[in-house]
Design brief:
Blueprint (H helix, E strand, L loop, with lengths): L1 H7 L5 E3 L3 H10 L4 E3 L10 E4 L14 H11 L7 E4 L7 H13 L9 E5 L17 E5 L2 H11 L7 E3 L3 H31 L4 H8 L21 H10 L6 H11 L1 H16 L6 E4 L14 H12 L3 E4 L7 H4 L3 E3 L12 E4 L4 H9 L4 H9 L3 E4 L8 E2 L1
Helix pairs in contact: 3-4, 6-8, 6-9, 10-11
The structure holds nicotinamide-adenine-dinucleotide.
């Protein structure tokens, strides 16, 4: 949507989505934009920009079916002289070998002769302050010299931060994977290092503080890695490499460490709760989405922690004020979107899964010293008990 909005200030743009529900909700919030699920809108366009999901399946197998289906749809309408641009996160070669090949097969048009291909990664970070599209430098590339010129003409008007033109689409595709895999690997390093420090009483936050005084040290936060990018994209590169006979030791190890996060958090929480020696602890779990201040629940590590907690304990209430009814949660837990209906007095244990600003503000109004939140904000999964919350804070 941010791309559609930005482009609509310079070009005639129509948004197409196969989901009528998505179109309905976006039409309400963006009444001046043309958004439809009618495929006929693909007729007579000059440029097709595709940004469909690239998820993984149950066993982390990559799923490019949405990309294939979108290329098939465009293939029904694309004409000579048109540009096809992919923005989804993909392994190197997808734009050319998957999308280009599908369109060539469906039409009698040839890549870089009759129609043109481009790739540009989506770099917005949901929930981040820097999420204005024009303020983020955009990586672009094309299938030939003319495609690259078309890509520049398309993106230049909307990107103030400038364009970075790659020699090939494969470089641009790989660069997006590297950006996200770098984060996954570094977070895994901090998770692993931090776990050992925590186990032996070495304050990891202080370790980071000290290490940060070195000019070339990069600071990351420990935590559960979820969402549809960082927890997913490494599998796209792993599949690309393994199909070519390469094992990726570092990337696979990072995935193993971060995937084990929810399980480890669950055991730590149980350990701490068991120490309280309560017959039936009343647990409140606040914040479920994969990241602070976003509404997205995809691959959220908190979901896995909650599922284990509800198996083990009878009284677990989950609340995320950023989520409406959530089928994933309602099946097995008492879920609420309303913080206002809750009182900390009714619970023995408070776990903060995701520290949305509204949650921090609400806890603040419940009377816990503000000093505590500053610490909690940097720690992703925090447990505290409610024996008036004095001296019981345990950061996981
Ligand atoms: N959302 C982000 O902030 C972000 C950031 C960086 C990268 N990405 C990448 O962008 C891609 C899209 O991610 P997303 O989170 O926006 O996905 P999303 O699931 O939120 O939205 C994708 C939309 O595509 C629609 N769709 C699916 N198949 C379609 C088709 N054949 N034709 C038309 N519409 C179709 C879906 O109905 C859905 O509404 C992914 O590759 C993701 O990794 C997203």
């Amino acid at each position: 949507m941010p791309l559609l909005e930005a482009l609509s200030k310079h070009f005639r743009v129509c948004g197409y989505d196969t989901s009528a529900a998505v179109v309905n909700s976006l039409e309400k919030s963006h009444e001046f934009l043309s958004i439809t699920s009618d495929k006929e809108c693909l007729r007579d366009c000059d440029v097709y920009i595709v940004c469909v999901p690239t998820p993984v399946g149950e066993h982390n197998e990559i799923d490019i079916s949405y990309i294939k289906s979108a290329a098939e749809s465009v293939g029904d309408y694309i004409q000579s002289g048109n540009l096809f641009v992919l923005e989804s996160t993909v392994y190197p070669g997808t734009t050319r070998d998957v999308c280009g090949a599908i369109i060539e097969k469906k039409t009698d048009l040839r890549v870089s002769v009759d129609f043109f291909l481009g790739y540009s990664s989506e770099r917005l970070s949901p929930g981040s302050d820097q999420s204005s599209i024009s303020a983020i430098q955009k990586v672009i590339s094309g299938s030939c010299g003319l495609s690259k010129v078309m890509m520049k003409d398309l993106y230049q008007p909307i990107i103030d931060a400038g364009l970075h033109l790659c020699d090939s689409m494969e470089i641009a595709e790989a660069s997006k994977l590297l950006e996200n895999i770098q984060r996954d690997v570094n977070i895994a390093l901090f998770n692993e290092f931090g776990d050992v420090c925590a186990a032996y009483g070495v304050e990891f936050e202080k370790v980071i503080e000290a290490a940060s005084t070195k000019w070339n040290f990069h600071k990351y936060s420990r935590g559960l890695v979820g969402g549809h990018c960082i927890s997913v994209d490494p599998y796209y590169f792993m599949a690309y490499a393994s199909n070519r006979g390469h094992n990726l030791d570092v990337i696979s190890a990072a995935r193993r460490v971060n995937s084990a996060g929810p399980q480890k958090s669950f055991y730590k929480i149980c350990n701490e709760i068991d120490k309280l020696d309560l017959v039936e602890p009343r647990i409140l779990f606040l914040g479920v989405t994969y990241k602070e201040n976003v509404q997205d629940i995809r691959n959220s590590g908190s979901l896995k922690v909650i599922s284990r907690l509800t198996d083990r304990f009878n009284s677990v209430v989950v609340c995320d004020p950023l989520l409406q009814e959530s089928p994933e949660l309602s099946r097995s837990t008492k879920f609420s979107s309303e913080l206002g209906n809750l009182s900390l007095d009714d619970f023995d244990v408070l776990i903060i899964g995701t520290a949305h600003q509204v949650i921090i503000d609400w806890i603040g109004r419940q009377g816990i010293p503000q000093k505590m939140f500053i610490e909690k904000r940097v720690l992703p999964l925090t447990l505290t008990t409610n024996s008036q919350l004095e001296g019981y804070k345990i950061c996981l």
